[in-house]
Amino acid sequence: MKRLLPTLFLMLIGLSLLTAQKKTDQIINDLEQKSGMYSEIAMEIWELAEMGFLEEKSSLLLQKTLSDEGFTIQSGVAGIPTAFIAEYGSGSPVIAVLGEYDALPGLSQKAVSEQVTAGGQAGHACGHHLFGTASAAAAIATKDYMEAHKIEGTIRFYGCPAEEGGSGKVYMVREGLFKDVDVALHWHPGASNAANIAASLANKSAKFRFYGVSSHAAAAPDKGRSALDGVEAMNLMVNMMREHIPEKARIHYVITEGGKAPNVVPNFAEVYYYARHNRRDVVMSIFDRIVDAAEGAAQGTGTTMDYEVLGGVHELLPNLVLQEIMYANLNKVGGYGYTEEENLFADKIAVTLGSDKADLQTIASVMPFKSEGKAFGSTDVGDVSFAVPTVGMNAATWVPGTPAHSWQAVAAGGTSIGAKGMMVAAKTLALTAVDLLSSKELIRKAKDEFIQRRGEDFEYIPLLGDRPPALDYRK
Ligand SMILES: [Zn+2]
User: Among 413, 25, 415, which Cα is nearest to 188's?
Assistant: First the structure.
């Protein structure tokens, strides 16, 4: 008996390891089998390259893909025609997978290794065609596994429009659409495979519009009041302000309208501002000072001014418990290799990025775990992360060294490299969703950490206030 007990114990461990391995294999094989279909869907969305809040066909394609698999669809949620929720199962736990599908203006590019426009208005320079497709694939694979193993709970896909400058998810969070969600999963296309703690900057953006009086700039300048003067005076003040704001804050602007002809005093001018910092309260205070500068500028130039807040997002709230699960699953999935043809393409892209050849090791492996992230950009996933415990990862959908929002990102994202990288994410997300659906204990731990990091008395204040969705911000 004394000998029998340890043997039994070892057998039990062996059995559970075997079951875990079987689970992993099943989910990965399921996704492998459908990878051709998902690649076609992603490439169709890549071709469409629809911009924020205008992603009608891309959204419909993902809705159809999910409804064909037995998900029920609720479309046009939060007052946004291209936002939707696809759901399978019932009751708790509720696991959400976020998907995006908006493209970026001015970044049209063919799937070739040199910079050639595809002739369109926009391009998938942030890889959101892969983001949306792989997240839908992960939701479907999770559903398949739940069905086969009679696992209770709900898997939901959140179709999230206009991440790029439109803050689409903020309206969805504000609407309370995540209220009953236990954990939200997401990923982002990138140049390596990683599941680290990530950070992002809170931001707030607005267009400031100045109204003056037109007159002949030479014959009757005294009769005119220049709206462009208003914009320039505002920019001058904001640029002086940069010295007196907290370190690491970022302010950027573009003049979107400055008049039509030098001999006409412009009666309308517009400037588009972003303020960012890794804390939302700092962003709010900087934004208020930018508004003060705009008001002062209007007064000093004899013009009037109004402004429209177009976006506003929270920083990302990390979750170490969830990140470790995601990382373990990414390691089970691992990286991938290039074919000869992909390698040729990648080497040519690598040269345009200043290196001799593509770093194959990065594609084939998973980056070492980091429990702290550095924030450079912003994402509306931030608001989701303050609503429910949220976790994400990156997959190598681009040639190593490729920055987001570049023609090289559009190009690789439109090839089999993008499609292969996206499946690394789909598999990792599905494995993580199944892990969470199978363990109340994991969810409880994730929630404890979430409450502790967010604070007990946290109150959600959307940075974009109560404005209706800015559906025409790209028009
Ligand atoms: Zn993006």
Answer: 413
